[in-house]
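Page 37, continued from 36.
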């Protein structure tokens, strides 16, 4: 709900509404929306206000005490990208998301992410989108597949092949017949079950928690006559933070690195399932749970290995890394 006491223009309201609408795009494994952010006129709604705070370093803020968001109109000269980025960032806080690193998990390193902090407005992307890491945060919080936290975007392929790539094979989306939802992934492997895989990368920072991680997928054969094998794997590269200080009161730590270095030239295997023969019914394949050192940064790559003998495509669904 927009604060009626704020000097909102219809254009500013439209920009904020468009930013919030991007949060409704990510899908749960069954095809339902992870969140449903929409405008209502009710006392329980998040109140979104616009204030002019000349000289303030804050672009905006969410208060969990008062359940409200305010945007600092002193930065409105930056145009639409200010409203898109800051409104989405603060609403993500309202949805329980925390701050993230500066560059996201895509190979192209979109910079900054939705939940990056201590970033100049001039660095914002001049386009309205929710980055991969923003969706992963929503999956981690809201995915209903089981009680573990999912660590990938578009795990049920309900948004097609978005956010996924493949090595030694090609990906396509199938419209019906998935595990819990409608869609699933068809992977036409051109190599063996040890060299052909579907993949997605993400960056994760461990603190003092004792989390454990694994890779999980569902797989099935294209027909009973085709020998089909699958394997769930989790790989990692270790990262460390650079020396750049954030310089805005947010402690420079692994929770929000603005400069990172990849220590491992190649991915290192973290956890891997056995090579599992699957039939025409969906079969869950999971690697063993494993832990990682505390207070460190990791670039994970979730991989779904598999092939179907001959010129056939293995079927995958609900591919993800999990944290517990």
């Amino acid at each position: 709900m927009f604060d009626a006491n704020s000097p909102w223009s219809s254009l500013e309201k439209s920009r904020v509404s468009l930013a919030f609408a991007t949060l409704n795009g990510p899908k749960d494994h069954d095809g339902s929306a992870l969140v449903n952010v929409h405008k209502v006129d009710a006392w329980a709604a998040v109140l979104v206000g616009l204030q002019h705070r000349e000289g303030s370093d804050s672009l905006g803020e969410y208060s969990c005490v008062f359940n409200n968001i305010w945007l600092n109109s002193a930065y409105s000269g930056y145009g639409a990208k200010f409203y898109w980025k800051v409104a989405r960032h603060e609403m993500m806080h309202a949805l329980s998301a925390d701050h993230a690193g500066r560059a996201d998990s895509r190979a192209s390193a979109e910079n900054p992410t939705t939940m990056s902090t201590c970033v100049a407005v001039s660095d914002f992307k001049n386009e309205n989108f929710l980055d991969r890491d923003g969706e992963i945060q929503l999956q981690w919080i809201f995915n209903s597949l089981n009680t573990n936290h999912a660590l990938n975007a578009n795990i049920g392929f309900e948004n097609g092949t978005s956010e996924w790539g493949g090595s030694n094979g090609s990906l396509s989306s199938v419209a019906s017949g998935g595990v819990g939802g409608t869609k699933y992934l068809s992977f036409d492997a051109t190599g063996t079950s040890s060299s052909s895989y579907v993949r997605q990368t993400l960056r994760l920072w461990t603190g003092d928690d004792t989390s454990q991680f694994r890779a999980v997928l569902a797989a099935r054969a294209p027909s009973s006559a085709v020998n089909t094998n699958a394997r769930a794997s989790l790989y990692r590269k270790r990262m460390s933070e650079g020396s750049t200080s954030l310089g805005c009161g947010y402690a420079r730590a692994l929770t929000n690195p603005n400069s990172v270095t990849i220590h491992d030239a190649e991915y290192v295997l973290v956890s891997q399932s056995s090579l599992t023969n699957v039939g025409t019914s969906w079969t869950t394949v999971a690697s063993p749970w494993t832990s990682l050192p505390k207070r460190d940064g990791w670039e994970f790559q979730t991989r779904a290995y598999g092939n179907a003998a001959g010129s056939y495509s293995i079927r995958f669904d609900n591919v993800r890394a999990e944290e517990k």
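Residues 249-258 have pLDDT under 50 and may be disordered. Flag for discussion at group meeting. Residues 145-323 form a domain with the Jelly Rolls fold (CATH 2.60.120.260).
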